UniProtKB/TrEMBL annotation:
It comes from the Eukaryota. The keyword Transmembrane helix does not apply. It comes from Panicum hallii. The active site is at E101, E105. This is Xyloglucan endotransglucosylase/hydrolase.
Amino acid sequence: MARRSLALLAVSLALLQVASAARSWLTQFTTDGIVRTGYDASGQKVMMLNLDRSSGPAGFNSKEQFLYGEFSIEMKLIPGNSAGTVSCFYLSSGTDDWRDEIDMEFMGNSSGQPVVLNTNVWANGDGKKEHQFDLWFDPSADYHTYTIIWNPENILFKVDNVFIRSFKRYADLPYPSSKPMTLHATLWDGSYWATEKGKVPIDWNNAPFVVSYRSFYANACVSGGACHAGRDGWMHRQLDAAEWGSVRWAERNYMRYNYCQDGYRFPLGLPAECSRS
């Protein structure tokens, strides 16, 4: 009887810890649109963004602003025909013409086609710095981890354990370095550009569209406050030779677009960083 009581107590404490962790994650954000919460099969708290014809965009936004850090979240994207939708995980200093922003945007696909991940960096309002990749797995079948590492030296993008991009800072070029940014996750109608350059719009017959998020992690410097104790792991983080190898692998096999190869878009010459190693 005593053993049974102890076992029940241990289970109760474990559930209490899970619930407490879930609440603490959710309380870090405000929400817009239709946002629902629930638990997955493992007992983890999940935040679900919903989009239909009448609801408008949905999202959650951090209450704090950050200046440098490591940010990650697990996402399970829209199954089936998600053409025209855009699911995002990004940092932004605002909506003005001089904003800084770091984007991971998942552009919806027609059934059977790969989902495209658009990575982009905005500095002082200049945002024409996209690298786009076809994802090499089905991002709607299970959760995958997406990570942004932002420090004074570079911005790193990672999918699960694979680094796919490094955006390097140059002293004479704009770089997000002084404007605190809010963390956002959003789902919205991007029919005008998301799928095949806007040729395939949303089919609202497939609504509601749902993207699920869980396991948010941030180790970052809070604007106006202290940096977290683990900052040494990311503050000066740069890629080693093996990690550069994974970037080259992603570029070679899955890159769909590289702004540094788009001479038509830049008739007066490619951006300066394109010619630097």
